[in-house]
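Standup notes, structure subgroup. Blocker cleared on the glyoxylic acid input:
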Amino acid sequence: MTASLRTPAAFYAPLAIGAPEPLRGQPVRLERMIHFVPPHIEKIRAKVPELVTQVDVVLGNLEDAIPADAKEAARSGFIEMARSVDFGETGLWTRINSLDSPWALDDIVEIVSAAGDRLDVIMLPKVEGPWDIHYLDQLLAQLEAKHGIERPILVHAILETAQGVKNVEAIAAASPRMHGMSLGPADLAASRGMKTTRVGGGHPAYGVLADDTDSDARAFSQQDLWHYTVGRMVDACASYGLKPFYGPFGDFADAAACEAQFRNAFLQGCLGAWSLHPSQIDIAKRIFSPDPDEVAFAKKILDAMPDGSGAVMLDGKMQDDATWKQAKVIVDLARLVSRKDPDLAETYGL
Ligand code: GLV
Ligand code: MG
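Run returned:
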């Protein structure tokens, strides 16, 4: 253990006297889409009670896309929304401004003071290293203690700087308060000097060209620009018991490309993505809920191997302890989805 980490006992101790015990595992929650709302707009706030029935997580955005002169209105709009709406099983998150901005301190102090008992997760943008998490961790513990908050507020980091990606494992390991991470392709592209102006998705020029043979025209296949980062994020999250997410997809008109990006992330291990437009809610729901045929086959594997060991053949395919674990991931997710979604519950038949 290096000196930069707390000892195991201290790691799980509250960071302020009277703050709640840190969690030792993730709460079981469905988070297929984190739906962004701009809380300074009253008309949008008025629709939140209806939105709560359609999405898994409502996130009040205070950071990028909120104009500088609306930062305070967004913060107070979020507090009003948090206090007045019944969120039930739907998660309530906020994305605060980055720690180097003039707004972050008031975002944290005011929101936790006024609505800390309602808030599930704070999304922290532009996380560069574990020091950012330690700062927020300590401050949250002090505020939780001061306001008698009984449930720890979790922290979700946006992975959107080159330095953050370099430090992804240390960020994941920084605190038991860590919920997970989202890939932020827009800021990350800028930070790395990538040559794209898109928010997520591929680029028509990024791909591989087939060999030059005499016979055919050379085929060009576009590749996923985010594959490497999603892979690193998923490994860091899975190693520390956190949840990985793909972030935003900016071209609202291109539903097919959004779906492809979300599906790649899902297949690589992500549990959800952001929805920035109502049309993306259904895309996320479809992609991040397991496919009914896969669920049926996974169920068959679990039924055929009641104690999860040995080897059996099913439909000509070999199953063993490892495929049993894969099947369990899918069936567990389907059970979770069934609790929220009666239509899918019926298709899964669990
Ligand atoms: C999200 O915040 C992004 O920068 O892509
Ligand atoms: Mg960003």
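Discussed briefly. Residues 36 and 276 are 5 Å apart (CA to CA).
Next: hand off to the docking folks.
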